[in-house]
Amino acid sequence: MAAITMKNIVKQYGDGFPAVNDVTLDVQDGEFMILVGPSGCGKSTLLRMIVGLEDITSGEMRIADRVVNRIAPRERNLSMVFQNYALYPHLTVYENIAFPLRLAKTPGDEVERRVKDTAELLELTEHLQRKPANLSGGQRQRVAMGRAIVRQADAFLFDEPLSNLDAKLRGQMRTEISRLQRRLGVTTVYVTHDQTEAMTLGDRVAVLRKGVLQQVGSPRELYEQPSNLFVAGFIGSPSMNFLPATVQDGHLETPLGRFEMDARKAAAVAGRSVVLVGIRPEDFEDASLISDEKRARGTIARAHVDVTEWLGNEQYAYVPYDAPEDLAAQLRDLSRELDSDQLRTQAVVALDAASLINAGEDAELWIDTGKAHIFDPASGENLTRDEERVAELGRRADRARAAQRRAQQREEPGAPTVAAAATGATGGAGEGADAESGSD
Ligand SMILES: Nc1ncnc2c1ncn2[C@@H]1O[C@H](COP(=O)(O)OP(=O)(O)O)[C@@H](O)[C@H]1O
Ligand SMILES: [Mg+2]
Questions:
Q1: Residue 207 near residue 51 (C-beta atoms within 8 A)
Q2: Residue (of 182, 115, 183) closest to 147 by Cα position
Q3: Which atom in ligand 1 lies closest to the alpha carbon of residue 43?
Q4: Of 98, 309, 315, 434, which is least packed with CB atoms within 10 Å of its CB?
Q5: Mutate to test the pocket of ligand 1, among 12, 41, 53, 436 (most ligand atoms within 8 A of CB)
Q6: Ligand 1 centre from 223 Cα, in Å?
Q7: Residue 245, beta-bridge partner list
Q8: What's the 40 CA to ligand 1 centre distance in angstroms?
Q9: CB–CB of 334/233 below 8 Å?
Q10: How far is the CA of 65 from the centre of ligand 1 (A)?
Q11: Which atom of ligand 1 is nearest to the CA of 46?
C-alpha cells in the first residue's frame, strides 16, 4: 500500500496543449480518491501518468517515498482496471486472473492459492473454468478486478470501469467496488465522468475542468460548499440553479423574488452590484406543504410553473425566468460545458410527490434561501463558501473513514487484507504490457 503524491503535474501533448495543467493532489495511503470531470478534462491523462503509460511534462509524481517520473510502469507495482476489461478470450476465468502471476513466474501452488482467494472474494469460484465470452457483463468486470487484486499491488487505478454496463448493473458494481476497496484497504484512484459515481464511491473527490483541479474534498463538502460555479453545477442532480441577482442592502433581488442574506453573506458581497445566486432544486418546496417554522426561515415566491414531472417519490417542476442576455449567454456556456442540455434560464425545482401544483399554473414556492450560495459572475468564485463549515466537514469525513475502517477490521478479523496476504516478493511484478493493451 502506498500514498500517491502529485506536485505541479503538467502534461502537454505534442501540439503543446496542456491536457493536465499544474495539478497538485495528495492521495493518502488506503484512501479511495475519485477523479471526476466532463469528457476531455484530462482524467485519463492524469491516471496514465500515475501508472506510467504517459510521460510527465513537468512536476513530480511520488508513490510511497519514491519519485516515479522516470520509473517504468512495470516497476511501479500498480494495478489498472479499464473500461473495456481487456480479458483474454481464449483463456479461462482462472487463467485470466492468474495471468499477472504467471508473468511474474509465481510458483504454481502460490498461484493456485491466490487465484482461489481472489475468486472467493469476488464470488467467481464456480465460474473459474469458464471463458469470458460466456459470462455476463458484471461477471467479466469482476474477472478484470480479480486480475488487478490478485497482484497485491500498492494501488488500484480505475478508468471508467463501469461505463459499458447498463444502469442496474452499474449500481450493483458500484456497491461491490466500494465494499471491496474498503475491505482491502488499498489506495485507489478512480476516474469517472459520472457525478453520481463520484459522490457514492469515494472518500474524497477531485474535480477537474480543462486540466485544472477545481476542488478536492469529501462528497458532502463538494455538495454543500462548492468552491466555484463549475463545481456547484457539476455536483448534484438535477444541477444547481443559477439566478442572476442584484445586491441590495442586506438582501438580493432575484427573478424568483427577494433572498435575505445573513450578516456573513452580506459582508461577502458588499460593494458588488450583480451576482449569480445558486440554489439547489431540493431547496424548494410547495409552500402549502411546509410548516410555519420552515416558512419563517425562507422566502415564498409566486412563480409560473411551465412543466411538471412526477416520479412517484418526488416531482420536478420547471420555472422559466428572465435573465439579462449577457448572463443568460454565460449560463448557457456553463450548461454546455457541464454536458447538461438543460436551458439555464429556467429553474428546476424538486417538490414533494404529494404536491398538487399543476403545469401551466402559478404556484407558491417556498425557497430555503439560507442554503443559497453567491457567485462572482466573472470568475465563478463562490463568494460565500463557509470555511468554518468546510473544516468541520473535513474532520467529520476523517472520523467517518477511520470508524468505517475499524468496523471492517472487527467484522472480518481474518479477512484477506492485502497487507496481511502479501507474502513473498512475487506480488505484482510487471503488468505493463497488459495494461497497455486495454487503454482507451
Ligand atoms: N495522445 C494524445 N495526443 C494529443 N492530445 C491528447 C492525447 N490524449 C488525450 N489528448 C487530449 O487531452 C485532453 C484530455 O484527454 P483525456 O485525458 O483523455 O480526458 P478525459 O479522460 O477526461 O476524457 C483532451 O483534450 C484530449 O483531446
Ligand atoms: Mg478518459
A1: no
A2: 115
A3: 22
A4: 309
A5: 41
A6: 27
A7: 275
A8: 6
A9: yes
A10: 29
A11: 17
Per-residue pLDDT tens over the stretch 45-86: 999 999 999 999 999 999 998 999 999 998 999 998 876 667
Pairing of strands 155-159, 187-192: parallel
**For the chain, which residues make up each domain, given as ranges?**
4-223+417-437, 241-382
Question: Minimum-distance ligand to the CA of 339?
Answer: 1
Say what the pLDDT of residue 412 is: 62
Query: What spacing in Å lies between the alpha carbon of 26 and ligand 2's midpoint?
Result: 20
Question: Which-ligand-closest: CA of 43?
Answer: 1
**Closest to 255 measured CA to CA, from 338, 327, 307, 310:** 327
Overall pTM surpassing 0.85 (yes/no)? yes
Fold for the domain defined by 4-223+417-437: Rossmann fold (3.40.50)
Q: Residue 209 carries which side chain, given as an amino acid letter?
A: R
According to DSSP, the residues that pair with 7 across neighbouring strands are: 60
Candidates 239, 237, 208, 205; CA nearest to 222 is 205
Q: Report DSSP letters for 117-138, one per residue.
A: HHHHHTT-GGGTTS-GGGS-HH
Q: Does the N-terminal peptide bond of residue 238 adopt cis geometry, omega within 30 degrees of 0?
A: yes
Grid coordinates representing 370 are 439560507
